Every structure is written in structure tokens, then in C-alpha cells.
Amino acid sequence: MLKTAESFIGELNRLQMKYKESHELGDGKYHIACGVTGKTTQMDFHFIFDQDGHSVTMRVFKLFVAPVDRQLPILELMNRFNREYRWVKFAMDQENWVNLQADAIVNETTSGPICMELMLRAVKIIDDTYPTFMHEVWA
Q1: Which residue, 65, 38, 48, 61, is CA-closest to 4?
Q2: Which of 20, 46, 92, 120 lies at 20 to 30 Å from 8 by C-alpha?
Q3: Structure pTM?
Q4: Residues with Cβ < 8 Å from 50, sequence gap 6 or more?
């Protein structure tokens, strides 16, 4: 296991937070998934640690699907939130799912606290934005 992934698992254990899965990917990267229930929705966080031990990517896939007739207003809302919230970025994939993403530079010492901080900030941002997104989805 990569030292950066070990650091994050150590931080999760220290805070008594459970993780769903942890495994090496075929390209030498390492994946850790955590489920978090916020105030507005349940979120699955995916952390993918680069094999060089210097960076991590955090993703929350499938926050919600944008109906075809609501895509333009949702994209406008995503752009607004991407300007307002500097820690994460909302993106829509080819199947119209809205996802959240962030990247960070880490090392084996900083990985645990940085990943935890990113996740907590992302939960707050999702909790803040999700009701507005849902209003737009069902408008």
C-alpha cells in the first residue's frame, strides 16, 4: 500500500470513520472509498492516490443526474458554484451525471489531514449546494 494511502487510512481510523473499500489499482495507484451522510444527501467519496506519492484526486460520482431539458440551467448553476467554492469543482459527465472533484498535492505526512480536510469541506459544499441543484432539477 502506498504511504500516502496509509496516512489517510490512519486518519480515518483515528477519527473512527469507516471506509468502504481500499485496494491497489492496476496502474500502481491506490483507491480508498468512504461513504458520508451529509445534511442533504448521502455521498460516496473516492480518493485515488498517485503511485509517485505526491498527489491525490478526490471524486464524488453521481451526485444527481441532470434531466435533458434542465441541463443548461444546471450547467449555469454549476459554473456559479465553481466560482463561489474554490476547493472543489462540479462537472457533468457524458451521461449527464453531476460529479464533484478536487486534486491535492500530498506526501506521506500530510496526506491524512489534507484528505480529511478536503472531504469535510466537500461535504459542507455539497450540503450548501444540493438543495439549489434539486430545485433546478425539479423546476
Answers
A1: 48
A2: 92
A3: 0.94
A4: 29, 56, 57
The C-alpha atoms of residue 8 and residue 33 are separated, in whole angstroms, by: 11
Per residue in 55-74, pLDDT tens? 999 999 999 999 999 999 99
What are the boundaries of each domain within the chain?
3-137
Q: Which CATH class is domain 3-137?
A: alpha beta
Which phi and psi (to 5°) does residue 78 adopt?
-60, -45
DSSP state of 37: E
User: Cβ distance 70 to 136 under 8 Å?
Assistant: yes
pLDDT in the model for residue 45: 98
Q: How far apart are alpha carbons 87 and 78 in whole angstroms?
A: 14
Q: Are 48 and 29 in contact (CB under 8 A)?
A: yes
Task: Give the DSSP H or E segment for 59.
Answer: strand 55-65
